[in-house]
Write a structure and sequence with these properties.
The complex is a heterodimer. By secondary structure, chain A is α+β, with helices and mostly antiparallel strands. Chain A contains 5 helices and 5 strands; from the N terminus they run H-H-H-H-H-E-E-E-E-E. The N and C termini of chain A lie far apart (45 Å). The mean pLDDT of chain B is 94. The chains are: A alpha+beta, B mainly alpha.
Chain lengths: 126, 227
């Protein structure tokens, strides 16, 4: 009985977090929408701190200015995957990676393109 | 010295190992959350409290991968010892008992006694199922915990994939992955080593008083004796 209960518990713990999909999707779409309308400050507020520091040009200009150079194609999410506190959202031809920190979804990497081998190549990456 | 209550005495082996299991799981959870959080620091992921770690896929896969190999070990051991022998080992039957043995030797059907389990007495499919019940249940828990390992392992693996900005994988993809098979085979090899070691060591070595050992004075050639 202990083994059966344990196996069920292990199965449940292994399932991906369905309720967090909408939060990750909303954060990704808000980020992309902020870039579309040129609101760099709003986009930067949706970045993880380490990602904001890694925006190209952010050492010379503020994140809000530097992030305007990041381009995203499309605003509608075509797929959302959430595993634990990490998520991947496909918007148009681009991919965003997000992390849930203190209950909020923040963008970890944006403007990502797949590579033949290894991780995505991203315009912004924390 | 006062005697322990009869229930404790009669079930001491199971109770002791259950207590050790809980203690080991408890300890594993603390060590595991430390390792997990150290890795999250490197990967830039969110660290977890101990309570959150207990229900995480990382803890689940680390437990499940060990459980499935233990149940595999016992399922294989139970089934293999029906047909395979190790001469001189306390873990083996004698050579003339290879196979499922006769109904008389197994005390089933008309050869059962009044205190035999009911399904051993009644015959038919019930006796057939009961005759395989130990292997079946061990096999069931092996399959169940292997499935749990694959599901929890996929969740833990995909979480790491996303932190490293790589694509997550399907269940089939994970079941064919190096991560799944590395976890699985590293556990299998140790279980199989344990059985092989026990079968061989028990030929020549003794542990006085243990039913897992031959009597101290039994010859090395004596097979299937218990001390």
């Amino acid at each position: 009985m202990l083994a059966l209960a344990g196996s069920v518990a292990l199965l449940l713990a292994g399932c991906s977090a369905g309720p967090h999909r909408s939060g990750a999707q909303a954060a990704a779409q808000s980020f992309v929408a902020a870039l579309e309308r040129g609101d760099g400050a709003a986009a930067c507020r949706l970045l993880l701190p380490k990602a904001a520091e890694a925006v190209p040009g952010a050492t010379d200009a503020s994140c809000a200015e530097a992030i305007k150079s990041v381009s995203e194609n499309g605003t509608s999410a075509s797929s959302v995957q959430v595993w634990g506190s990490a998520a991947q959202v496909r918007i148009g031809s681009d991919v965003l990676f997000l992390q849930r920190v203190s209950g909020r979804w923040l963008v970890d990497a944006a403007g990502c393109k797949p590579q033949p081998v290894g991780p995505y190549s991203c315009q912004v990456s924390g | 010295m006062s005697r322990p209550p009869r229930f404790l005495r009669d079930n001491g082996l199971t109770l002791t190992f259950l207590a050790l299991l809980l203690a080991a799981l408890f300890g594993q959870s603390f060590a595991g959350v430390e390792v997990y959080n150290a890795q999250q620091l490197v990967d830039g992921g969110q660290q977890l409290s101990w309570a959150a770690y207990l229900v995480s896929s990382d803890f689940a896969v680390n437990v499940a991968e060990n459980w499935q190999s233990e149940y595999l070990q016992f399922a294989l051991y139970i089934l293999a010892t029906v047909w395979l022998i190790q001469r001189g080992s306390s873990e083996s039957k004698e050579p003339d008992s290879i196979g499922t043995e006769s109904d008389a030797e197994q005390q089933v059907g008309r050869h059962a006694s009044a205190d035999s389990p009911r399904w051993a007495r009644v015959g038919g499919w019930r006796t057939a199922v009961y005759s395989q019940s130990l292997g079946l249940v061990m096999g069931f828990f092996f399959i169940g915990s292997l499935l749990a390992q694959s599901i929890a392992g996929r969740a833990a693996y995909n979480h790491e994939q996303l932190l490293q900005q790589e694509d997550p994988v399907s269940w089939l993809g994970y079941a064919a992955s190096a991560d799944f098979w590395n976890r699985t085979l590293q556990n299998w090899q140790s279980e199989l080593l344990a059985v092989a070691s026990m079968a061989a060591f028990s030929i020549y070595l003794r542990q006085r008083g243990s039913p897992e050992s031959k009597p101290v004075g039994a010859s090395h050639d004596a097979t299937g004796q218990s001390g």
